[in-house]
Amino acid sequence: MDRRTSWLRVIACFMVVLLHVCADNFYVYDTRWASANLYDSMMRACVPLFFMISGANLLAKRESLSSFLRKRCMRILPPFLFWSLFYLCWRSANGETIANWAQEIIARPASFHLWYFYALIGLYAVVPVLRKFYQHGSSNEQLAFLALWLLVASIYPMIVGLQDDLACGHWQASGVPAMYQLLYFGGFIGYFVLGAMLAENRGPISNGLGSGLLLFMLGSAGTAIATWWLAVRSGGRPCEFFYSYLSPLVITAAYGLFSACMSLPAGLPSRRLAVVSDCTLGIYCLHIFVMQNFKLTGVTAAAGNAWITSLTTAAAVFAVSLAVIWLMRSIKLFRHVT
Asked: Label partner for 187 (CA 20 to 30 A): which of 121, 147, 153, 207?
């Protein structure tokens, strides 16, 4: 375990919490919208960071196919099923009728944020093939892959999406790439390769704390400005177009933050950091439940000064989620689902 990836897990996890805490203030274009837009724009690198960590940990590793599948299944399937059932129980307790729970889990996430598991299942299925390419391909071939991914998954959808919907933009991932069978370079798979390359300091730009933080700030500021521009252009209608995890600006921010952390000295994490890092998957899964219960007591980012309450609410949700998951992990039975 590397303390750099441990820090990245913790940072990305808190970013997810703050992003979701701010969400309620984003959809109304009022005095709270500016804070929601800025915080949301800065936090958008969160999920890409998780994908990049997975790429850094998996693509350079040498193991048999059976070993890989066994480890990944044990890592993903127990928490996926546990938290899906947890949120289905919660929905059922709140009066929702769910006819077929097994069908519901297969068809869609039990809670919106659990989409991450569905994405990981598909991405892990590709890793054995992608790993061979990464381990035996040259740096130029890997950079060519990233260039095609950036074009197909990010730049083209952004340009076409803005043309198709002049008011708010509409992310368009098919069209020409589908016709030319270029969708193999689409989706989140590029983050895996990018994370693996940056972990070995073989990215297009060398890892550096200053340059990485600058890229993160430029990508985040660009996202906030572009989102504000869309809102103004659409007559005060908040638009999430540039919040896409595949937006060029979000990719820039994720690249920068990951690169900045990778520029720090490697080494084992402290005991406390390791404990929090081990809890991040559970925090990710639980925090929506905690956040919704906070709302019932009036603890939200919409109360008071949104610039401050967004941060304090996110910190409280993160802390409570961490405490619960830490307690759950103290029981051996729950370690495989958190």
From this structure: 207
Phi, psi of 6, deg, nearest 5: -65, -45
Is-contact 117 80, C-beta < 8 A? yes
Query: What pLDDT is stored for residue 68 in this prediction?
Result: 92
Closest CA to 280 of 4, 10, 5: 10
The pTM assigned to this predicted structure is 0.94
Alpha helices in the chain (DSSP H): 3-26, 33-43, 46-58, 65-93, 101-107, 115-136, 139-149, 156-164, 176-179, 189-199, 209-233, 248-262, 271-278, 280-296, 306-329
What is the helix (H) or strand (E) element at residue 265, kind and residue range? none
Joined together, the tokens standing for residue 293 give 């219960």
Q: Is the model's pLDDT at 13 over the cut of 90? A: yes
pLDDT of 4 > 90? The answer is yes
Report the 10 Å Cβ neighbour count for 244: 21
Query: In this predicted structure, what is the pLDDT of residue 271?
Result: 94
Distance CA 327, CA 319 (A): 12
Give dist(CA 125, CA 94) in Å, integer. 35
The answer to whether 325 and 282 have CB atoms below 8 angstroms apart is yes
Whole-angstrom Cα distance, residue 313 to residue 283? 15
pLDDT value at residue 327: 97
Residue 99's pLDDT is: 85
Tokens of 154: 């990010």
What's the confidence (pLDDT) of residue 172?
66
**Residue 181 CB coordination number (10 Å):** 8
**Model confidence over 251-289: pLDDT tens digits?**
999 999 999 999 999 899 999 999 999 999 999 999 999
Evaluate if residue 176 carries a pLDDT over 80.
no
Instruction: Compute CA distances 309 → 46, 200, 205, 300, 322, whole Å.
Output: 20, 39, 37, 7, 19
Q: What is the H or E stretch that residue 38 is in?
A: helix 33-43
Q: How many CB atoms lie within 10 A of CB 235?
A: 8
Q: Which residues touch 54 (CB under 8 Å, ≥6 apart)?
A: 120, 123, 192, 195
Whether 46 and 284 have beta carbons less than 8 Å apart is answered as no
**Distance separating alpha carbons of residues 112 and 115, to the nearest angstrom:** 6
